[in-house]
Fold each of these.
Amino acid sequence: MVHQGISDGVGAENLVERLAAHRTLAAAPRAELAWVASHGQLIEFPAGHTLFRTGEPIVELYVVLAGRFSIRVHRGSGWRKVMEWRSGDVSGLLPYSRLTATPGDTRTDEPTEVVSVHRDLFPEMTRDCHELTAILVHVMLDRARHFRSSDLHDEKLASLGRLAAGLAHELNNPASAVARSAEVLLERMPAAEAAFRALGGVRLSQAELAAFNELCERCLAEGPQQLRSPLEQAEREEALGVWLERHGLDRAAAESLAETGLALPALDAGARALGAEALGAALPALAASCGTRRLASDIQRAASRVHELVAAVKGFTYMDQAAIPKPVDLARGLSDTLTILRAKAKSKSVRLRAEVEPDLPTVDGFGGELNQVWSNLIDNAIDAVGDGGSVEVSARRQDGAVVVRVVDDGPGIPPEVRERIFEPFFTTKPQGDATGLGLAIARTLVGQHEGEIEVESRAGRTEFRVTLPAGAPAVSPG
């Protein structure tokens, strides 16, 4: 790194000419460019030089005359280039900027030459160089918009990754149940067909057919077999085997009958209504009928769960809807968000409860963005409480507004941390586990909806409170 003074007149004049040809500063008056030349310092950086490391203070304005450097930010899954500056750009600390420390590592990608102006000179610059200051403020606003857009995009990708992981876990159980039940159903179909052919061969009377149908209905009404423990199931098979032997039938049918919900008194009633021959043919058909209908019921329940999850994802993301403000049903958004995050809560044995006031008013805005807020707050609360904790979500109307609270019973947020939780890239989680953008994005999105977000925390209770202007009452579907 080479520092060059600009004390001689020729050097200063040459620098003014270079600044006059600078893409960003060319519109500034020549006298103001001369101020930069006389107060700044010309610095040359070699390729690969680190200007700043993450968290280091920024104290200088950089006018890039030649070369290129970029900033890389750790976004949870690794380092990512979020912005670069080339000849003709302005970087570093800018007038009126609230930026105090760099959010990432800044390094030169090739030999780079800049003019630096220390922040101690900013009061003089803003007083004497009005047009130059206006140009730099515009640069600051453009940079802030770029970072905000990039941050929101990356946080949405991170949330999408968490959503996909939780959804895959949650979908696995019902999808496996559908596949497993369908496979068993196919395996049992030949035996069921044979059992009903045999039953048809005995030519049941109307009274016997009515008794058989009654047994089928009782079978389904007795409750699901899977609620029994292995010991209870073994005891039931033994009792059924004894019953079959007592009625002169093969006890091999005990296993299939044990899978039904039939109690022994119901079998006794059926045996009295059916003759000996009809009973021998009816029991295998009965077991096949109950088993088939039970498997179909299992498939229906699992498929309904898949449908529920897909509907929750669709509602959470507001897919298929135009990106324009509209009345948002907060109750539906909170429900969809809780459905998406329930798998994570279950994996940590976290009790996740919700209480939403009936007929909650809508909020004008973007449903997908508000769901992003709820997702960030609830996800953080689940992480905060640890295994066996509790997270409560509530939504109520209050003084012309809707207030959503996310409360956890975790250890609380220390005061020194609480002051920084809304800063971009600030996180207390291990590197790679979080982007440090969730709460910063949440605050931005709430602000865009003309609301506010607040936090109160002590040991055993942390509450994030979001207040949004109420709109019209929500319309119930149907």
Amino acid sequence: MRVHTPFLPIHFPRTEGSSFIAKANGIFMRKFPTLASFRKPSAAILESSRLAASFDLPDTTKAEASITLKRAAPCLGIDGTVYHVLDILIGLTRPQDWQGTNRPIVAISNERLADYTMRSERTVIRCLRKLVEAGILAYRDSATGRRFVIRDDNGQQKAAFGLDFSPARARLTALKTMADAFKEKLDRQREVRRALSGLIQAINLHASQLSLERQNTLQQELANIIECETLTDQGRLAPLEALYEKYILDTANLSVEPEGMSPAGDIDVTTNYQTDNQHKECSQSLDASPGEAVLKSGEREIVEGKAVLRTLDVQSPSIPLSLISSALRETKNLLRCAITDWHSLVSTAPVMCRMISVSQAVWAKAVDKIGAIGASTLLSLVHEKACRGDAAIRNPSAYFLSLVANAESGSLQLQRSFYALRRT
């Protein structure tokens, strides 16, 4: 004979029942993130659920999390509508949910997301799945499939079901590292492309100075390097530099005029650059990395956006960087760069040298005499005039050397020249 034991429900004290249930629900949420039966879990989805189940999540701020996720988005293949959905979901999280025991859970329906993004619900569902598989979101489904968040009077979560950003919170440090590495890669690629563009344009610019036979040979070799599909941009750089030195640089060095020539329009005015032979700046080679000019203490000061080039005991007038930047219209367009500080001006010097056929020896001599910033400023003036087709500059390398000599002797002021370039 079977004895039936009646089911006796467990009753919690009225005063403690609600807090106990909330605490139990919180433990369940952290340890066992739920997936609805209609979902088809993949390995990536299960990994996101595992990350969301972590007890020790690092504290962060909503702003920091938002910036990190958006910087890491290209690395994770997030773009277009997926990025739009991510932006909306981050905006709906509460700042306090990124700290403490709370979870950054968003309770928004697929229908509302479709309205916000002006896409279909099916598209929104695919976007959410991609974010989950990218390790940013996790599904935290309720029994009915509804998404909702219940909070107490202090804003603490009592129950929450929806789209959980806990995986992103758990991986925030890794995502920062990923975003930084991606940015460094893009910067390197940009510098290589800029160098390639400068070399190619410099070769084409000076090819007319060669004989017809050498022009044809040069163009054929240039085409072979550019059209070679097995070479990367980095791989093309060395052959192009060798081609430039073989056909252009050697030819330009043979025709350098005496450095005492007078550049019209830039002399016989108030002194701007003064140097002391006992306190010369150390030279910077052309193939040094951008912006690595070593300047002695006291010989250069950068104050309120102006460059003050001085020796240890003699101060000269300053040239506003804004004036230089506004005057270098063609240079900035050609090199595809923005001159926002003195480091960015110095970093463009190697490319400008190649463009106007200034050799490494000439550049090092100029840096030794007036410093990296002074030499870069003069070089930018010569480069800008050459880009605009100034007929007075028959030999840019010799013109640059004459400017350096006049700057060293104290018979040069550049403000008038830069003002004239800005007006034209």
Amino acid sequence: MNKKNMFALLTALALLTASAGCGAKEMTETTDAPIVAEKSNGEAVMNDAAGAPAEAGEAADDAAPAAAPAAVDEGAYAEAEYDMAAGDADFAYGADAKLTARTAGSPVLNGEFGAVDGAEVADDVLTAEPMPAAGEVGVLTAGEWRDHDNWGFFANLVNTGAIAFPSFGLDPTHRVEVTVHDAAGTALPNADVVLTQEDGGVLWTAKTDKNGVAYLFEGAGTGTSVTVTAPDGATATETLPPLAADTQSETPLCTSRSAEITLESAPVLAPDMQVMFIVDTTGSMGDEMMYLQSDFTALTEEIEGETAYSVLFYKDEGDDYVTRSSGDFTSDTAEIKRALAAEYASGGGDEPEAVAQALTAAFIDQHWSEDAVKVAFLIYDAPPHDGTEEDLQAAIGTAAEMGIHLVPVVSSNGSRETELFGRAAAICTNGSYVFLTDDSGVGGSHLEPIIGDHEVELLHDIIVRIVNDYRQ
């Protein structure tokens, strides 16, 4: 018996074994049944057009086997034909590999094959886990919340002890809201705004958005003045009013002050846009990875104007990599789609992930344009590691100084500390907080954030709206 037929027989035996021993879980017949094959050692991944369903009776063009790594013996690989209702799909399969077969309306069956010896197949070769039906990864639902637009609500949460900060070194609870405009009242975007204390030390630096608004944060200090510098060099300094608490308490935990500054300057708009996706690719992020892989092109088609993209993937120490970038920003969306299609969720294993390293790579190591509106989506489900507070403060402070709006997108199984870190990061960078919801029925359960009334929308629509709203 040749390798091809032998492996097909072993695969069939494995499926029968799992059907008998795992509650007789069945694979629904469908014409939308993509095959996703990946090596468990992380060296290769194959799918049909990044998740696009294959037509009945035929395999996707790019479902061809990936080349076996040179370091693996040739005998460790076998070619197999896997026959499903959707048709045949050829894929390379190693002795140390995992098969994922997903069909519409059915669970995913994951096959963990050890070193296959003759006709021996492990009894526990298949296990089931819930996954979205084929072609439905674009239906992820989410909500959006801006604490800056609901500051009274946020202040009450903090002052009553419902939530507490700092979160991993980020403290957004003492803000200064600065509005900059010209003599006619026209908003002045892209101006540098610096908050200083009495001894001249700088507490925070930010840029005004398209509405001429910048948010500064006092942290453990007390700001005394704000200096604004417009893109054309015009400058002005304003002394801050006395501190006024958002509560009647003598020792408020949350405060807000405001300043309005007029400059003899003309508005200078940023003509272009840069959008980065910072994506946790550990094992629990499969739904979100498939969403980006399937929906990225549709997103770019609805995002207005000239836009350049980049993707920063991250896992954790001890995984295949800690951070991996798609490269410099590019308007070649096909290049970004290829980078997304090459990645898959694996690794991790504990809750904290390399968030600090990811944000450092994204905001400090990556080159961002001076003349672009900048938005970064952090798609994640786990908080940073303890002990990374200084790195996180540096990364978020750099993002605020450069005018990068960070939009955290909290995925399934997120914890309360994951939420509070995301909200703090969004507040400090004049961003929005986005969270997936259970309404789509996709993936695990999603944490209900401590917020007010909000709408549930498609994640696709929220991303498009946020990017377009920030555009100048």
